[in-house]
Amino acid sequence: MIQLMSHDEDVMPDALAGLAASAAIQLSDIPFECPISEVRVGRIDGKFILNPSKQQLEISDVDMVIGASEDNFSDDGGRRTERNFRRRYGGSHSLCT
To answer: Nearest to residue 95, comparing CAs of 18, 23, 40, 35?
Structure first.
């Protein structure tokens, strides 16, 4: 169980829960293939924003959480390849470089 003790009211803390859980599992003896991290992504005026504020999310046309390991990533809609991600959200941006 992940318990949030304190946070900034303008920051969405849910994307950090995956990172915290992964760190805890990596420090334990639970067999887990590899560490992961998560990030919330928004898009405003065609530009992707990592970990947007609540105010930015209100005007964003994308709101998703992406989990990633060293070899793969998945958004909250299910497993996606980089090619499918580019096709769905746009051709060239820093998330796919």
So the answer is: 40
Neighbour count for residue 43 (Cβ, 10 Å): 19
Q: Which helix (H) or strand (E) holds 70?
A: none
Helix or strand or coil: residue 65? strand
pTM for this entry: 0.66
Q: Say which DSSP state 53 is in.
A: B
Beta bridge partners of 50: 41
Report residue 29 as tokens: 């003896």
Which of 20, 38, 49, 46 lies closest to 74 in space, CA to CA?
38
The length of the chain, given as a count of residues? 97
Question: How far is residue 41's CA from residue 55's CA, in Å, rounded to a whole number?
Answer: 13
Please give the helix or strand (H or E) that residue 17 lies within, else none. helix 14-27
pLDDT in tens, 41-62: 888 998 889 889 989 988 988 8
Residue 12 CB coordination number (10 Å): 18
